[in-house]
């Protein structure tokens, strides 16, 4: 299928590189994780294209994150749990979550940039260099795994073209759950996400 570029694809390749156990692969894992963070932010922004006239610009993590947050208005450390039900019968249809690219993950992604350039000989000879890199990669992998675990790509947002209507986006083919004309309702919970303790990994 060639080289796939969804966030989950980058994450899977990073995991394989980390599992390989050899030191050169760690640099390639850093690249895949960095790209995975950028890809997830782009996926979130593009998912709500129906509700905004804004256009995605740039590739830097901090700029992409600000664009996503300006539309979702949730902040980078808030998750969103949503339950969708049949408006006629109140029967449960689906439960989904929005798992953001947290502020911690954004900072980790920026730190990975230090390893995507030529390294000074004296730096890689430092006793703690490889341990610190492995630690950074493990933490970033953990955070990106969480960011990619949710299937709610855009929480309910006011539709600018249809007054009174809201638009949301769930990843994957949802035609069986939401056939045309089906009336639905939803309830939701916004919750705080606690940052990972970097000393535990």
Instruction: Name the shape in a single word.
Output: elongated
Main sheet makeup: 3 strands, antiparallel
Rounded Rg: 19 Å
Total helical segments: 6
The helix fraction, in percent, is 40-55%
Cα(first) to Cα(last) distance is 34 Å
Total domains:
1
Order of helices and strands: HHHEEHHHEEE
Structural class: alpha+beta
Strand order of the biggest β-sheet: 2-1-5
Oligomer: single chain
Tell me how many strands there are.
5
Mean pLDDT: 87
Query: Could you list the spans in which at least 5 consecutive residues all have pLDDT below 50?
Result: none
Tell me the strand percentage band. Answer: 15-25%
Folded structure, characterized:
The structure is a single chain. The chain is an alpha+beta fold. The chain has one domain. Helix content is 42%, strand content 18%. It has 6 helices and 5 strands. It has helices spanning 7-20, 23-47, 61-72, 103-112, 121-124, 129-147; strands at 78-86, 92-98, 152-158, 166-170, 184-192. Strands 2-1-5 form a 3-stranded antiparallel β-sheet, with no helix packed on it. The mean pLDDT is 87.
């Amino acid at each position: 299928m060639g080289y796939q570029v969804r966030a989950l694809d980058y994450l899977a390749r990073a995991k394989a590189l980390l599992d390989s156990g050899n030191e050169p692969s760690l640099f390639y894992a850093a690249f895949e994780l960095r790209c995975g963070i950028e890809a997830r932010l782009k996926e979130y922004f593009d998912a709500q294209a129906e509700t905004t006239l804004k256009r995605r610009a740039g590739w830097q993590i901090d700029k992409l994150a600000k664009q996503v947050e300006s539309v979702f208005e949730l902040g980078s450390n808030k998750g969103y749990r949503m339950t969708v039900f049949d408006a006629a019968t109140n029967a449960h249809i689906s439960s989904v979550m929005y798992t953001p690219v947290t502020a911690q993950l954004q900072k980790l992604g920026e730190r990975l940039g230090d390893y995507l350039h030529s390294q000074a000989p004296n730096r890689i000879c430092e006793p703690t260099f490889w341990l610190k890199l492995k630690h950074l990669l493990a933490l970033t992998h953990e955070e990106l795994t969480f960011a990619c675990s949710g299937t709610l790509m855009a929480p309910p947002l006011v539709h600018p073209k249809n007054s009174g209507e809201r638009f949301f986006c769930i990843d994957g083919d949802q035609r069986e759950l939401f056939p045309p004309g089906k009336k639905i309702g939803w309830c939701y919970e916004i919750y705080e996400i606690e940052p990972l303790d970097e000393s535990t990994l």
